[in-house]
Amino acid sequence: MSNAASASDKVTVIDVTQYGADPTGVKDSAEGIQAAIEAAKEVTGPVVLDFPKGEYQIYPDHAQKRELYISNTLSRNNGDRGTYKMKNIGILLENMENVTLEGNQSSLIFHGKMMMFSTIGCKNIRIQNFDTDFQVPSVVSVTAEKVEGNTAILYVPECYNYSVSGTTVTWSSDVSPYTGQAYWSYTNNVGHVQGFDMTTATLTTSGDKFFNNVQSMEKLDGHRLKVTYNSAPSFKAGYGQQMRRTTRDHSAAFFWESDGVTMQHVELHFLHAFGVVGQLSKNITLDDVNFRNYEGSGRTGVGSADFVQMSGCGGTIRIVNSTFEDPQDDPINIHGTFLQVTERISDNKFKVHYQHHETSGFPNYYVGDEVEFVSKGTLLPIDGAKAKVTGVVGPDGHGGTMVAGNGDKADASKTDLDTIIVTLDTNMPSSVSANAAALENVTYTPSVEIENNVFREMPVRGILVTTRKPVVIRNNEFDNVAGAAVYISDDVNSWYESGHDEDVLIEGNVFRRCGVNQSSYSAFIQFDPTNNGAAEPVHKNVRIKDNTFYFTNGTSNIINAKSVNGLTFTGNKVLRFSVNEKANPAKTTLAIGESVAMNVSAVEGANINAFTFNGCRNVNISDNIYDKGVTRRVNITNMQNSEVKIGENEGVSIGSGTQPASEMIYVSSDPEVVRVDGTGHVTGLKKGTATVTAYELVGGRKFQADPVTFTVTDQSTGTVTAVKVLAKDLTVKNPSDGGYSVSGDSVTIKAMGQGLWATQTANNVIVSGENVNRGDGTFTAIVKMSGKTVNNWDEAGLFIYKDDDNYVAVERKHGTNSPKVHVVTEANGSANEDQNTENPNAEAIWLKLEKSGNTFTGYCSVDKENWTKAGNSITNDKIGNSFGVALVAGTGNNTKGTAFTFSGLEINGKAVALTEDAATGGESGNIEDLAKVKSGNAILESASVSGVSFPTFSSETKSYVTTADKNVKSVKISLKAKDENAKIEICRNGVGNGVGLKNVNEIVSAENGKNQITEQEVALVAGLNIITARVIAEDGRTQEIYRFLVTRTGAQDASIGGISVDNKEVAGFDVSEKSYSASLTKGQTEVKIALKNLGEGAKAVLNVNGKTYNPQESIPVSGDNMTVGIAITPDGGVTEHYSLSLRVPSDSNAKLEKVQFGSTIQSNGNFNANLKEYTASTMTRTSRVTFTAQEANAKITVKCNNVTAATGTGSVETSVTMKKGNNQLQVTVESADKSRTETYIWSVEGKSEVYLSDLSYESNSATGWGSIMKDKSVDGKTLTLYDGSQEKTFEKGMGIHATANLYYNIEGMGFKKFTSYMGVDREANQDGNVKFNVYTDNKQVYTGGAVTRASEMAKLDISVEGVKILRLNVDQNGSDSNDHADFADAKFITELADDTTPETVAVTGVTLDKSTAKLTAKGQTVDLTATVAPENATNKKVTFTTSNEKVATVDANGKVTAAGNGTATITVTTEDGKKTAACEVTVEIPTKEYTLPTGEDTLEVEAEDFVLYPLNGDTEKHVHAETAEWASGGKFLNWFEPGDKISMNFDAQEAGEYEVTASYRSGCTDMSTTNNAFNWEGTNVESGSVDVIGETGATTTHTVTFTIKVTQAGKGVLSFIANSSKKGPQTDKFVFKKKAETPPPTVVAVTGVTLDKSTAKLTEKGQTVDLTATVAPENATNKNVIFETSNEKVATVDGNGKVTAVANGKATITVTTEDGEKTAACEVTVEIPNVPVPAPEELVNEVKNEIAAAEGRKESDYTEETWKVYEKALNAAKEAVEQKTATEEEMQQILTALRNAASALKKETPSTEKETPSTEKETPSTNPQTPETPNDGTVKVGQVIKAEGQYGVFTYKVTGKDTVEVKSITAKGKAKKSVKIFDKIKASGKTWKVTGVAANALKGNKKMESLTIGKNVKKIGKNAFANCRKLKKVTIKSKKINTIGKNAFKNINKKATVKVPKAQKKKYAKLLNKAKLSKKVKIK
Q: CA 748, 750, 751, 752 torsion: positive or negative?
C-alpha cells in the first residue's frame, strides 16, 4: 500500500485499542496492534497509529513472523542462521509510508525472544513516545549484596524466575499464556559473563565468579541466593554479573530497505539478543532514544550486544540527545560490508562472498548503486575500479534468491546465502582479482551526526563509524569506556566492516576514564584500519578540537592513530580525572632552624602518554592544555618526524617527552614562626605554631592540600645567628623529605633515589634558572662539590639541564667499583657516558662545564686553578639556548643516603647564591596566580547516611556498600565538600548511570555555591539503590564521584483482596482472573474505584483513557463503555495488571461482552468487542460455547455452519457441532431497541489430526541432555530416521535424549488414536541405544525393544479415547551416550467426521422478535413471533402467558391486546426444555394534549386529567382519582405510591423554564424527613424533584412552586412519578406559567480615576497617609485598582492606598484601574529629621562622570572575572545616584570602588570564532526604529506594524489604542542570542506599550540563549517560545502577566533558569508549569 502524503492530506488517527490492543496490560496486544496496522494500510494519506497511554503486553506466540537475515547476528558456522531465521516481530510495518506510531508515553512489555519494531520497505516512519521493556530480560543480572568468609548473599532482581537444585540455579522466562511453557531457560552463568562493579560503575569482561567453585546453594526469601564456596570468593559486595547467551537470534529493532525512519522520545530498557539495526536503509534518526534500565529495576544489563548497528545505510544517520548505558558490546557501530571477490567471471561481472560468519543472507547491492573495489592489502580504492551496478543475483533477505537488472537467472544456482554475483556498467582493471579485492557499496555510505549524547559504562568501545561521508561527533559525554571512546577502523580481514573515513570532526566532547580496561583499544580516540600502516593512509581529514579528556591510570594514549592523512589535534584539554593533593611531611614538630619538606603528592595520581601514530601524514598538534601526568611524547612508526607539526609552546616532543611542570605555592599562616620556601621546605624560626597550606597550579586548575600544622620548640639545631634557607631563585624538582639541607652558604643533597640516566627520574634536583635563554655565546658553569661516591651507581655533579631527558653533566660517577669523573650526555632519553677521567682522591673537587654552540666540555680540579679535561668534548643538539644549571645526586643502589655538599656556584664568572637568610614572608610562589585560578578540588570532606550502617567515611574511599530491610523506606544523607566553592549533586537510584545525573527521578543540588547538603531524605526502592554524589569543583570541570550502595529487601506483595465500584464490591473476584466488569447508572458523571486489602507497601494506579488516577479518586465517566486498567506495583516485584470494564446500560448497544469456548475450541487471539472476525480450531465434534452480550436485554443468535444453534437474551449457552475442515460459527447480537446489529464470525478449522509438537507438554517433562526440541532433533537439526532402506526426514515431531519423559494432558480433546514413528536420530553416533515406552493414565500400552541408530524406525498406533495423561518415555539401554531419540510424525487422530447431523436435535433456547412493545389505544394489538433454537430442533412447540390481564392479554399465537394503562410481561415457553423468552408491554392510552403558555398566560391542569399508570394496574392501593370538596375540580389523586406514574402530553411553543404551582395535601410535617415529593421526568423535559410538607392529618391545602425546563420547542411528555424513597402527596392540580428571561447585565467602561491628594509629606519613618481613589463614572462595572510606588526605599503603598514612609527622598504613588489602565498619581516627600546628610553635588557629579565613562566600555572586550567586579561596582554607583540617599563617606567609597574596578579591567584575548559584540543597550527608547507604516491616523486594531533598528526587524500586531503584541522577531548580531521584548516601542509616529507575545512568536528559535520580557507584558500566547532548545536564561520583568498559553515554554533548555519578580513567583510558577515548562528548569 502507499500512504503517500501531500501538504493538504488529512491525517487519519487509528486507535489500536479499537482493534484489540489492551492498554490495561492484561491481555496480549500483538494481534490487535497488527490488525490496526492492516487497517492503516487501507488508508490514503498520513496515518497515526495511536496507542492510548497504558501498558501493552506483546507476546511472540501471535506476533508477526518473518524470515530475515540481519547483519552481525547469526552464525552460519554452528547452524544458528538456519535455526533462528524466523523472527518474532512485535510491531511490523511493511511497505508503508507516512506512518506515525504514537505511544503517548505508553509502556510496551515484550515477552520471550522477539524483535520489538521493524520497518521493511517503508518511508517516512516515526516511532515516538514509548517506554519498552521485556517482562523477563534474557540477560540475567545478579549482584553480590554481602560477602562474609566463604559465603555470599546474591540479590536477584524481582523480574527473574529461578529455581535451585543442588549447586545449580535454573533461570527461566515468563510462561506463554498460550502454551503454558517458558520461552527459555538457562542454568548458572547462562553462557557468557560480563562483570559490573556497582561501586565504580565499571563493566568488565571477566569470567564467572558467582557460579564456580560452589559448595552449596540455597534460595532465600526476598529474591536472594545464598551461595557457599569451597574457598573465599574473589569478589566483594557490590560486584555484579550480567549473564547471557551469545546467540543473536533477534535484533531489538530492524529498519530494512526503509527511508526516513525516526525514533524519538523512546526508552529502551532492554534489547533482546542484539540492538537497533538499520540495514540498507536511508535517513535514520534516533532522537532522545535512551538505552538504560528503568529506575528501581535492580538490573544492570540493558542489552546482549551492540545497541545501535547501522549496516550499509545511506543518507544521514542522526543520533542525538540520547543516553547509552551498560551494553554488552559497542553502543554505536556504523559501517558498510565488504564482500570479497572470489571469482572474476568477466571484466564486468564478479562473484563476491560474505566473509564474516555472522553476516550474510541479504542483498548488499541494488541495481543503480555506485560501488568500488578496494585492495585487501592496503585498503585503498583500486584505481579505475568504481562503477554502477546493472545486475544482481543473490540472496533477497527473506531466504530466497533475487535476480535484478541484467542479472542472469542462470546464475541463481551459482549463488547462496553467502554469495552474490554483480554485473557492472564498465570493465574493471585486472587488479580486481579473486581473493585480492573486496567490494564496497558507495551509495549506502551515510553522513553521520552524533551529538549531545551520553555514553556510560561501555565494556569495549564507544562509537564505531566508518563511512566516507562527513562524520560529526560533537558535544557528547563519555564516561567509563573500557576501550576507545571513538574507534574508527576499516576492516577487510575480520568483521569486513567497510569503509574509509574522509571527513571526521570530533568536537566539544567530554571524555572521562576511557581506554582503561581494553589493552587493544587503550586510547581515548583510535584509528585502526586492518592494513599494516606502511602504505598510503586510508583515512583522511580528521579534526579533533575543543574536547576535554579526563584520564586515569590504565589508558595508554590520548590518540592512537594508524593510517590517517591530515589529523589535527587542537584546542583540547587533557586533565587528570581525580586529584586529591596530600601533604606528608616527615615531622610536624621542629626545632628552631630545622627544616622539613612538605612532600606534597596526589593521592590518586595518573599517567598517560600523549600520542601514538603509525603511517600517518600531515599531523598537526597545537594549542592544547596538558595536565600533570601527561607525558607529552609522540611515538611514531612507518612515518617521518616531519609529518608531525607541533605548536611552538606545545611542549610535545617526538620520541620523548616531559610532563607539564606544576606551579607550587605555599602559604604560612604565621611566617614569624615557620617559613616555607618555593620548594615546600618548612623551616622553624621561633617558638609557636603555624599552619602551612600547599597549592598546586597546573592545567588551568588549582588543587589545595590539607593544611599542616607545625609546632616549633624553643630548642635549636645549634647556635642560630641567622636561619638559612635555599635561595628563592632556585627550584627543587621532585623534592623528598630529608633529601637536601642548607647550611651556611652550601647545600647538601643526599642520593635518595635514581639519577637522571636514560629515562630515570632523580629526587631533589636543584635548578638555577630553569629554561632561561642564555643566548648563543659561550657558557660556563663552575661548582665546588664535597663528597665521594661510595656505592655502585652513586653519582653527583654539575648539569647543564634542559629537562630530565636532555642534559650534559660533569660528575663523579661510581661504576662497577670504579669511581671516575664522567661527562654524561642525554638527548631525548638516549644517554652516553663514554667520556671520563680519573677521579681525584680529594674529598672536595671543583667541576666545570663549558658550552659553545652544541659542543660541551667537562673538567675537574682540586684547586680551581689546574683543570683536567674529562675525556673529549661531546655534542648535544637538544639543549638549545634555553636551559638551567642543576645540582644532582643519585644512586642506583639499594643503599641510599650518600651526601654531597655543593657551594661556590658560578655562572659565566658570576657567583650564584645557593642559600639566603630566612625571610618572614607568608607566601612562597606567585600569590597573584593563586587568586586567578579556580580550584579543582572536588573532594568530599565528610559524608554520613542515617537509617543504614555504612563503613566509616574517608575521602580516599569512593564507594560504600550496605543492606536495609523492608522497614527502611528512606535514608538521610549529609555531604560536605572540602572546598567551600565546590558544588555537590546527588541522585537517587541512578542504577547503571556512571555519573547518575541525567534523566533520573531525583536530583538534589547544593544551593548557589554552598558546598554541603544536609539531611537530604532519599527514598529507597526494593533491591538496588545507588546514591551517587558528584562533587563539582569551582572550575566547573573537575569532579569526583562517590557512591553509596544500599540493597534493600522489599515486601514483594502485589496482592489485592477485591475491587469495588462506588462502594459496591465486584462479584466473583479471584486474583487468578484479571478481567472484570461492572455496570454504571444512566446519567452517572463520575465513578470511584476502591481496592481491598492492598499488599504491604504496594502502590496502585488506575489508568483511564490515558490518564492516571489513584484509588478512591473521582474518575469522570466518558461514553457508554470505559475500561479501567489497574496496575499494582509491589514494594519489590513484578507489577500485576487487572482490567475493569465499566458500562452504562444502553438499549442501543449490540456488542458482545464475553466469549467462552472451554478447552475444545482454540481461538487465535483474545476476544475484543470491536473486532468481528477470528480464526480458531477444534478437534472435537461437539463443543459447548457461551456468548454473553454487554447488555442483559440484547438478543443473541448463534449459528453454526448456517444452522441456528440457539437464541436468547443477554447470554446464550449452547452446543455446536463441527465437521472436519472449514466451519463457520456466527453470533449475531441485536440491541434491545433494535437499532443496531453486530455480527461476530469465527472461522473454525476442524482438525482430523493434530501433531504432537503443536501441543504443549506438561511442566514435569524432561530430557536427559540438551533441551526438548519441537520439530527438530535434540541437536537442533532435521528429524531423520532409518526406514530400513534409507534415511527419511520429517518436518514434524519431537527430539529428546534418554532418559526422557514427555507428559501431555489430553483430557476432553476428543482424540481417538495416537500414531508416531520412533527411533534413534541419524545425527547420533553408532553407540546410541534406547528403549521406547508409552503409558496412558499410568498404564503401559507399549513396550519397545533396544533401538540403535541403525535400527529400522518403529511404528506406534494406539487408542487414546478417554485418556487423560499420555506419557512418552525413552530409557537409556546401557550408556546414555548419543541417545538422540525421535518421535517423528507424531500425531493424534480426532473424532471429527464429515457427517454432522445428529439423530435428535434438542431445543437449546427460544427468542422473541421483540423484547419490548408499546400500545397507545385500548384494544390495540401487536404480534410476537417466537424463534426456537436450533433451527432444526425436533420439537418447536411453545405457549404464551401474560403477567397482568388488566393491562394486556395474549393468545396462543402471540397476539397481544391492550386492556388498560400499565405494564405487563408476555412470556413464551418451549415445550422441550422449558426455555423461555419475554417481552415487556407498556400500555399508555393518551389523553388530550396541552399547549404550554407564553408571556403572562397560565395553564391550569387538573391532576385527575393526567394519564394514570398505577403499578401493575392496581387502582385500589395505587394512584387513582377520588372525590373531595377541597379539590378544585371536585377530584384529586390519592395513593400516589412507589412505582406509580401520571403523564400529560404537551406542546411547547418556546423552550426554556416554566414555573409550575402544584396544589396538594400532605401528612408530612418535617422537611428533613419527608417522604413526599413531586419527581418529574419525560421527553423534551429535564428531570427534577421538589420535596413537599404538610401537617398531621393532611387537612390543609398547600401549594409548592418549582421550575421545569423544556429543552426545545415542540411536543413532549411530562410525567410525575413516585419512587421507593419519595412518593407523591394527595394531588389536586398544576398551574403552568412561562418564566421571563433575565437580560444580560450592561457593562460600563471606566473613563478615568483621581486621587484625593496630588502631594503628601511624611516626616517620620513608619508614618502613613491614606490615598483614596475615585473611579469614573460612578456606575463603572469594574472599579478595581492597583497601587504602586516608584521607590520602595522611600515609601511603600499597600493595596488599599495606605502609604508608609521608609527613608528620606521622593516617591510617586500611582493608582491604575484594572479596566482601561487609567492612572492618577501623588508625589510623596519623606523628610525625616536627624538623618545623615546626602553627599554633596560635586561628589555626586564625579560619580556620574565615571558612570558616563562606562558607556564606552563593552563587556566582550574584557575578561569575565574583571568585568563582573566592574559591573558590580557600576551598578552600586548607579543605584546610589538614583536613590540620592548616600552620605558623603558612602559616596566616596562607591567612587573609589568604581575607579579601582575600572583600572583593574583586563582586555579579553580576541578570538576569530566569536561574533562581534553588539552595542545593544538596555533601554529600547535609545534604539530608534524605522516605521514601515505611515502615521496617517489609519493604524487600527489587528493591523501589523514593523519596527526596524540596530537589533533587527520586530513585527507587532496592534491590540488596542496604544498597545501591541510581539508577532515575530528577526534579530541581528548579538540580539540573535540575547532577545529582549521592550517595554515600549516607537513606530508609525507614536509610542506603543508592548503588552503581549503572540502565539508561535519565537517558536523553534535555534539561536536564542537568553530572553528578557518587558514590564508591560500581560499575556504570552501558546507555543510562543516552544522548542527554543538553546534558551537557558529567561528574565520576566512584568508583574502583570495573567495568561501564559499552552506549551509556551515547552522544550526549552532543561538547564534553564527563569527569573521572575519575587512577589509573583508563586503565581508565575503555576502559569509556567501549565505552559509545559520542564520541572528541571529553575524558577528564581
A: negative
Q: Strand 1039-1048's sheet: what is its strand order?
A: 959-964, 1039-1048, 1023-1032, 983-988, 1003-1005
What is the rounded CA–CA span in Å between residue 550 and residue 513? 6
Write down the residue that cell numbers 482424540 correspond to: 1311
Q: 1506: which DSSP letter?
A: S
Q: What's the DSSP call for residue 584?
A: -
In angstroms, the CA 70 to CA 273 distance is: 12
- Report the pLDDT value the prediction gives residue 895, as an integer from 0 to 100: 60
Closest CA to 1030 of 1631, 476, 437, 201: 201
Tell me which H or E stretch contains 632.
Answer: strand 630-637
Count Cα atoms within 13 angstroms, Cβ side, for 727: 17
Burial 1321-1337 (b: 16+ CB within 10 A, else e): bbbbeeebbbbbebbbe
| Kind and range of the H or E run holding 828 | none
Dump the DSSP string for 277-310. Answer: EEES-EEEEEEEEEESPPTT------BSS-SEEE
* Spatial CB neighbours of 302, under 8 Å, sequence gap ≥ 6: 139, 268, 269, 270, 271, 291, 292, 293, 325, 326, 327, 992
Q: DSSP letter string over 229-285?
A: ESS--S--TTEEEEEE-------SEEEES-EEEEEEEEEE--BSSS-EEEES-EEEE
SS3 content of the chain, % helix, strand, coil (to 5): 5, 50, 45
Show the cell assigned to 498: 567497510
Task: Output the pLDDT for position 1486.
Answer: 67
**pLDDT-wise least confident of 188-197, 917-926, 1817-1826:** 1817-1826
Beta pairing, strands 276-279 & 308-311: parallel
**What stretches of 787-864 adopt beta strand conformation (E)?**
795-803, 806-814, 819-827, 830-838, 844-852, 855-861
- Beta partners for residue 1671, in sequence order: 1649
Give the cell for residue 681: 621546605
Distance CA 1892, CA 1911 (A): 10
The answer to whether 1393 and 1219 are in contact (CB under 8 A) is yes
Q: Which pairing describes strands 1840-1845 and 1848-1854: parallel, antiparallel, or unpaired?
A: antiparallel
Question: CB-hemisphere CA count at 13 Å for 1914?
Answer: 8
Beta bridge partners of 523: 557
In three-state form (DSSP H/G/I as H, E/B as E, the rest C), the secondary structure along 414-448 is HCCCCEEEEEECCCCCCCCCCCCEEEEECCCCCEE
* H or E stretch covering 931: helix 927-932
In angstroms, the CA 1914 to CA 1860 distance is 11
Three-class secondary structure of residue 1529 per DSSP: coil
pLDDT at 1692: 93
Place of cell 516626616: 1659
Whole-prediction pTM: 0.66
CA distances for 96 relative to 19, 31, 259, 880, angstroms: 19, 18, 11, 72
CA 1403 – CA 1474 distance, rounded (Å) = 9
Q: Which helix (H) or strand (E) holds 787?
A: none
Q: Can you list the positions of beta strands (E) in 1809-1916?
A: 1826-1827, 1840-1845, 1848-1854, 1859-1867, 1874-1877, 1880-1883, 1886-1893, 1906-1909, 1915-1916
Q: Is the peptide bond before 909 cis (omega within 30 degrees of 0)?
A: no
Instruction: Decide if 1708 contacts 1740 (C-beta within 8 A).
Output: no
Cα–Cα dist 327/196, whole Å? 11
Average pLDDT over residues 989-999: 38
Q: For the beta carbon of residue 618, count every other beta carbon within 10 angstroms.
A: 15
- The whole-angstrom separation of Cα 1217 and Cα 1214 is 10
**Distance linking the first and last C-alpha atoms of the chain:** 54
DSSP-assigned letters across all residues of 950-1015: PPPP-TT--EEEEEE-TT--EEEEEEEESSTT-EEEEEE--TT-SS--SS-S-EEE-STT--EEEE
- Tell me what the mean pLDDT of segment 1842-1862 comes to: 82
